[in-house]
Amino acid sequence: MAETLVLKGTMCAHTDMVTAIATPIDNSDIIVTSSRDNGGKDGVVLLWDLAEGKKLYSLEAGSVIHSVCFSPNRYWLCAATESSIRIWDLESKSVVEDLKVDLKAEAEKSDGAVGTGNKTKVIYCTSLNWSADGNTLFSGYTDGVIRVWVLLHRTHLSVEHILDGQHNHYTYHKHMHHNCSQYVDDKFHKTILRTGEKKCRRYDGGDVIS
Known about the structure:
The protein has one domain (18-173): Methylamine Dehydrogenase, Chain H. The chain is 4% helix and 47% strand. It has 1 helix and 18 strands. A 5-stranded antiparallel β-sheet has the order 9-10-11-12-13, with no helix packed on it. Strands 14-15-16-17-18 form a 5-stranded antiparallel β-sheet, with no helix packed on it. It has a 4-stranded antiparallel β-sheet with strand order 1-2-3-4, with no helix packed on it. WD repeats lie at residues 65-98, 126-149.
């Protein structure tokens, strides 16, 4: 007999349209839903206990939410909102990252090659997904660009790649964080990781080359 889906039940707590649903890979009894609650002006995330069929608690995003996803190896929840990518630590219920795109910096580094090169247009993230190892966050935006964020140290994320369908841009950046700095070389498409132990490693496409 062919498998089929049947409606098991319903969960009601949102006051407006539900915009996204996510489930953690290690706990099938918990899901997260988002909606345009508060009169459609703000985004609200609800954490549910499926075993009990009830809402556990809510998180305010402060802006309309278009996508949500769990980190595969941290107790983090990410939400793509119309103002930023917001990341919560669910253990403390606190915001650990509020990622925003600097279009002016992107245009200066890529000479206008990314998107339309408009430094003042308004864009926002509409889709999110983590890599399997939890160190890379992929984000899709309304300007048709996929921005790839890498975890440099614990909770610090920075854009590494910008993919627009025609170009693969490596945005130059330098971050000093806990004795660690990272450089992305636009010309050679290499990443150099310098540690406080005076050791350097170069990466090309995810592979260590020196």
